[in-house]
Amino acid sequence: MKIAEDGKAATAIWYQFSDEKLVQASSATISSAVSSWAGAATNVSNPVANVESSEPNLGLSSDGTRATAVWTEVLRVGMDRPTHGVGTASAVITGTDGGWNAPTNLPASAAQAQNPQVGLSADGSQATAVVKMVSGGVAAASANIVGNVATWDADFTSIDGTDAGESPSIGVSADGSLITAAWDGGSKIGSASAVRTYTVTFNANGGGGGGTMPPQSANAATALAANSFTRTGYP
Predict the structure, then answer these.
(1) Which of 208, 88, 100 shows the shortest CA–CA distance to 141?
(2) Is 68 in a helix, a strand, or coil?
(3) N or C: which end of the chain has fewer CB within 10 A?
C-alpha cells in the first residue's frame, strides 16, 4: 500500500489468489482516523487463460491522485512456467475511484523478466521500473505518463548483466530525473544510479527547404537548437 504525503489518500494493490490469479487494487480517502475504501476492488490485470499475474508493486504520486502498477505475468503450460512477462497499468484516482486504464505489457525483453518494482516522480507523470532478468542481471525502463496512459521505452536497458539481481528496488527523485536502483547480488549488494535522458524530436509540419532537425537529447535543462525548417509564406 502507498499513501499520499498528507495522509489523506491511499491505494493498495495485491495478488488475488483465485482461479483467475489477478492483480487487484482499491483506493481510499482518509479523514482523521477513518478510512473510506472503494466498495469493490478493481481488476488491474486482465483475466487471461493460462496467465498468472503476481508480484504486484505500486507507485503513487505525492498527492495520491495518480498511480502506476507493475506485476509479473507467468505463462502456465502444464506444470511449467516457461515465460515471465511484466504487466503495467496507470490510474488517475478521484476519491475512491481508481480510474485504471487497460493493462499493457512492458518491452519485448520483459518476456524474461520478473519481480518488477516501480518508482514515480512526485506528480506521477514519470515512472521507472526495475526488474530481475530470468537469465540473470537487472534491467530498467522508463515511461512518460499523460493522464492514465503511459508510454514506455521501446525496450529495457541492462543495469548489470552479471549479478543474480534478486529483490531489486528503485528510488526516483521528485522531478523524475534521478534514479537509483539496488539489488541482491548474491555475495554483495549491487546498486547503480542514473540521470534520465530526455529526447525532443522536431516535425517540419509541412515545411521543407532542405532544412534538417535531428532529434536532440539531454539530461539537464538545455536550449533547443535553432529552427532550420523553412516554409513558403512563413517567416
Answers:
(1) 88
(2) strand
(3) C
Q: How far is it, in rounded angstroms, from Cα 221 to Cα 227?
A: 18
Angstrom distance (rounded) from CA 210 to CA 130: 42
User: Tens digits of per-residue pLDDT, 142-196?
Assistant: 999 999 999 998 888 888 877 777 899 999 999 998 999 999 987 788 898 988 7
Q: Dump the DSSP string for 131-176.
A: EEETTSSEEEEEEEEETTEEEE-SS-EEEESSS--EEEEEEE-TTS
Parallel/antiparallel/unpaired status of strands 2-3 and 9-16: antiparallel
Give φ, ψ of 80 to 5 degrees: -90, 160
What pLDDT does 111 receive?
A: 66
pTM of the model: 0.82
Helices (H), 29-141: none
Could you tell me how many residues make up the chain? 235
Q: At 218, is the secondary structure helix, strand, or coil?
A: strand
Q: For residues 215 and 219, what is the distance between their CA atoms, to the nearest angstrom?
A: 14
The torsion region of residue 233 among left (phi > 0), alpha (psi -120 to 50) and beta comes to: left
Closest to 27 in 3D by CA, of 14, 15, 41, 17: 41
Task: Tell me how far apart the alpha carbons of residues 17 and 34 are, in angstroms, rounded to a whole number.
Answer: 28
Which residue matches cell numbers 539496488? 182
Say which DSSP state 7 is in. Answer: S
Amino acid at 212: T
- Give the three-state DSSP class for 194: strand
